[in-house]
Amino acid sequence: MRIDIITVLPEILESPLNHSIVKRAREKGLAEIHVHSLRDFSSDKHRRVDDYSFSKGAGMVMAIQPIEKAIETLKKERDYDEIIFTTPDGKLFDQKEANTLSLKKNIIILCGHYKGVDQRVRDHFITKEISIGDYVLTGGELAAAVITDSVVRLLPGVLSDETSALTDSFQDYLLSPPVYTRPAEYKGMKVPEILLSGNDKLIDDWKHQQSIERTKKLRPDLYKKYSG
Ligand code: 6GU
């Protein structure tokens, strides 16, 4: 899979895309990720990418020219399955959307900024608008990093069997069970007896039961989806 991210702040994406599982996926050639600086596509002599809003007092707006140039430059090289815009008024991102995106071949993510983007960009170039939650971020870069991370870890071969994405929280609308490591007792705090039993069947049943109980208690909304 190939992901092209267009942003005014490429530096913000540096760290999340170059560590841990995403880094490994890139090294293995399972995910090809390219970060593009929007300024490189500006025809303005000062490389500006924003301008005043036609509606008074509305703050700066991302202009259509550099965005159109960036998208068209990428489209000349290959076809894209989705051109995503990260914005707080987009559709709420969830595991189902991550699964859907992980099946695509090429996607572009345009990171929103300032007081928004010229509506003509959204009307003519964007195929999907995504928000990562009901709160306001300074820019769409962190959202793009979140989307990329959640999608890349789903690509075949990225995770080992042991950490398989199929056993992730949310994959079947259940939260993960609690986990423990050595020592079996620390300052009087004990690991549940059953985990020390060596009985795989009993342990699996316990884990499933714990998942159900935690989901009921912590995320009743998810539990409804699981049981309904
Ligand atoms: Cl995608 N962008 C911004 N600026 N804020 C957000 C968001 C995106 N998702 C939630 N809040």
From TrEMBL:
As its record notes, the protein acts as a catalyst of: guanosine(37) in tRNA + S-adenosyl-L-methionine = N(1)-methylguanosine(37) in tRNA + S-adenosyl-L-homocysteine + H(+)
Q: What is the name listed in the Swiss-Prot or TrEMBL entry for this protein?
A: tRNA (guanine-N(1)-)-methyltransferase
Question: Which gene holds the coding sequence for this protein?
Answer: trmD
Q: What is known about what this protein does?
A: Specifically methylates guanosine-37 in various tRNAs.
SUBUNIT field: Homodimer.
Q: Which residues bind S-adenosyl-L-methionine?
A: G112, I132, G133, D134, Y135, V136, L137
Where does this protein come from, organism-wise? Mariniphaga sediminis
Say yes or no: keyword Cell membrane present.
no
A GO cellular component annotated for this chain's UniProt record is:
cytosol
Residue limits of the tRNA methyltransferase TRMD/TRM10-type domain? 1-225
GO BP term, example: tRNA N1-guanine methylation
Keyword set for this entry?
Answer: Cytoplasm, Methyltransferase, S-adenosyl-L-methionine, Transferase, tRNA processing
The entry lists its GO molecular-function terms as: tRNA (guanine(37)-N1)-methyltransferase activity
Q: What is its main location?
A: cytoplasm
